[in-house]
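Hey, resending since the last one bounced:
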Amino acid sequence: MSASSLTCRECGSEYPLEAHFVCSKCFGPLEVKYEEHPSAGDPDAIRRRIQAGPPNIWRYADFLPLDRVPTLAASGPGQTPGLEGLPAGSTPLVRADNLAKELGLREVWVKNDAANPTHSFKDRVVAVAAARAKELGFTTLACASTGNLANAVAAAGAALGMPVYVFIPADLEEQKILATGIYGATVVTVRGNYDDVNRLCTEIAGERPDWAFVNVNMRPYYAEGSKTLAYEIAEQLGWQTPDRIVAPIASGSLFTKIGKGFQEWKDLGLLDADQALPIMSGAQAAGCNPVAHAFEQGHDVCRPVKPDTIAKSLAIGNPADGPYAIELARQTAGTIDQVTDDEIRAGIALLARTTGIFTETAGGVTTATLKKLADSGRIGADERVVIVITGEGLKTLDAVRGTFECREIDPNFDQFEATAEHRTEVSV
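The structure tokens again:
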């Protein structure tokens, strides 16, 4: 496939492949439209082409909105060309038998996107947006962020030699601020929530024509990077779809693009035609639940809320893709649930204790939602379930403070013996 235009998701109006993100006729969001893949009708040829690609998201370049794979020329005779930027993607899909057993489920897999360069799935979307920004001639990268995106944009700019400005809420977790500034980015903290930050960045984007805001004026390209999660999951499962995906919802873009990725490959015959799209189960924090609330009430649109949750990376009170997330959940007989902060902490501990994967609060939301679905019997006993873990636990250490206790002793065997019978207790 090759990108042919941008198209409005509401009225269908088409625009050139430039830095547009909203329809000038109906103000609907724009997304990338593609021409048919040159090997359409020959799934085996497409699979071979994919498998011959590099072990990162650029193996799926045929399905992304770029003129070319971002490569570096060889530095001299006999030298191997390299890839420009950071090598996002190809993260582990981990079979989680201990977790499945504890929840009474047959088969659970963890797509651990914390294994990306800056330890979140945002490296995928930034890789695509930054590459397209360079193709369009932008000189500066920027973003509005709840943390993970700031890390990814700052690192991508450093790798590409581009100046970076990131705008974040002033109350963001310290770990995420430190992991942004270290790359040399200009970090601007804004007294307000993410929606306030996003409005400011939309205004700045209009006044800085040489700035590529990856999730504002570059949003149609940025969003396409999330599809690669679906591609990887399908490829890692032997060109099959799971029965269910459980994924977090912030803006709703990640959730909907995973669905889009599976649908694109089904349309090309890369996946079993007899298999339906996975049941799509969304996960939100109760302290920022506009999509979950609308889904529960049977509404098609989301009422904005003021976020109040430890899951700051999901704290988008006015989600741009919320209505599309609701539509996808309904189309696939899926769900959108919400979990409390206490359940989020317990979800972090549950995943760590059963899989050895330490996730940030967004992953706690996803794991807690999986448990909620299992406890209520809404997951079938024979389902193959994949949960999407989007970030690393070291980014949100405050969320797990006080959840366990250490036992201090002198370097004395008798003292050890006296305490050895006591396990470290997790108090979540």
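The chain has two domains: 93-119+226-400, 122-222.

Sorry for the duplicate.
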